């Protein structure tokens, strides 16, 4: 029994598949994914590089494999990387099989970037530790100097351990192998735990953390991740605010989602930087942020956690006036009515 390459059969294949008549360039059969990908439009092959491959395959006795990069507009997500195979199955039919490698390639590029950035960021404190140790060795008899350098070693090692902690956190969040266990989580508990974690830093600067009336909202998520995200936002609000100011935390339920808002009266963020602060290792003021012990990873961790929860993070800010960060996440369906 012979089976034709009908659309139903092509749909079974785990890749984009279509059959084209090489002399008329008409597509005679195609999987649904071929249309969805835009590679086949009506009965035509909508990619010149694929048409070239088909023309070559027509003459060849063996299948031809080729990696093809198709430039799309930035609005369509930039270039697309495809692994294509074309084979003449009879004189009037070339079978084309295409696997989209775009996602894999983007993830590989992100990983490479991440490793380069991490190495760069780790070099600074490690280099400083080496220099400080050298300074102590050169001045072992001067106890005042030894104390001064030892204090700085303590500070640098603290920074290093913060950085490593954040890197581990971020890699955990990004690892596809770790499936977050979602459970109903009471937001009031999340807020209390996050505020507790930052309380002493706030107290040291006489910053009052004020909470709006507690509202009993239940969200679907990971409690520890949500606490980490909110703690990062509140910690930033404290770090980037002057003494004797206020940080307000509010919870605003909406139709299927809930917003957690953290507003401060701090230094604010320049408008042109607002898009970039969620990038890994990005700090508005590199030098000043180093002195506050920032890693530049806090907000990218928040962003990842929001994405994991089917939500998002946004910010409004005015220099010299303050910043307001809003985390939006999905509500749990059992959340009490009317809240
Ligand atoms: P960091 O560890 O440097 O705080 P983040 O990713 O948490 O890293 O934040 C990135 C940058 O965004 C910070 O270096 C800081 O410049 C800016 N930023 C974050 N939160 C605030 C805030 N509440 N007020 C002012 N600037 C902020």
Main traits of this protein?
elongated; Helix Hairpins; 5-stranded antiparallel β-sheet; binds adenosine-5'-diphosphate; about 350 residues; alpha+beta; 5-stranded mixed β-sheet; Beta-Lactamase; Heat Shock Protein 90; 3 domains
Tell me what the structure shows:
With 339 residues, the protein is α+β, with helices and mostly antiparallel strands. It folds into 3 domains: 94 residues, PAS domain (Beta-Lactamase, 2-Layer Sandwich); 76 residues, Helix Hairpins (Orthogonal Bundle), CATH 1.10.287.130; 158 residues, Histidine kinase-like ATPase, C-terminal domain (Heat Shock Protein 90, 2-Layer Sandwich). Helices cover 42% and strands 25% of the residues. It is built from 9 helices and 14 strands. The strands form 4 sheets. A 5-stranded antiparallel beta sheet has the order 2-1-7-6-5. It has a 5-stranded mixed beta sheet with strand order 9-11-12-14-13, covered by helices on one side. It has a two-stranded antiparallel sheet with strand order 3-4. A hairpin with a 3-residue loop joins strand 13 and strand 14. Helix 5 runs parallel beside helix 9 and helix 6 packs parallel to helix 7. The longest helix has 37 residues. The chain is elongated. The model has no long low-confidence stretch (mean pLDDT 89). The protein binds adenosine-5'-diphosphate. Adenosine-5'-diphosphate binds next to helix 7 and helix 9.
Short description:
This protein has 339 residues and is an alpha+beta fold.
